[in-house]
Amino acid sequence: NAGVTQTPKFQVLKTGQSMTLQCAQDMNHEYMSWYRQDPGMGLRLIHYSVGAGITDQGEVPNGYNVSRSTTEDFPLRLLSAAPSQTSVYFCASSYSQGPMEPQHFGDGTRLSIL
Amino acid sequence: RKEVEQDPGPFNVPEGATVAFNCTYSNSASQSFFWYRQDCRKEPKLLMSVYSSGNEDGRFTAQLNRASQYISLLIRDSKLSDSATYLCVVNPGTGFQKLVFGTGTRLLVSP
Q1: Is B92 an interface residue toward A (CB < 8 Å)?
Q2: Range B42-49 average pLDDT
Q3: B103 to chain A: nearest residue by CA?
């Protein structure tokens, strides 16, 4: 049962570098999202997608890009890494956007920007 | 005022104790409510959804009070394995699942 798979699990970047955080799910879920989790704050929504080819911004989208070319994959791109983007990033998916539908999380990517 | 507020704890309890957490939310139009559990440095996992009439799952009971805008989680007969951070999560009903997460309440169960 792979569920939601995130890679890499850890990454250290220098300020100004770019990189892509990968997220894949094998549950045929239409809905996918990216969150960041910082100390003392709840998870915050970065970007989300309601299906292949459709993405939208969440609460904290600046500095990040996403695309959704397939149902399975939802990569998150950091365009020019900044120390403020040091965080733990979680990808999540859900079968529908029904109000009681649970989200399934990947096990996270711990990103440090120096 | 934060959209979702939780006491960060930690709540230190002995095995077998009963412990309760509350969580308040600011948006009276919020549609749905959840408790997620997060172990140290792990991903959040759904513990239980919270229904209007209240619901129970084994040792865990969740309640919703819409009038006072809070939800609660009661854990009976605490186990060592219950040690974790419990996240209160609210769907404000603003489209898609733009869930709002509380910062979590940490529970430490000791022998």
Answers
A1: no
A2: 94
A3: A42
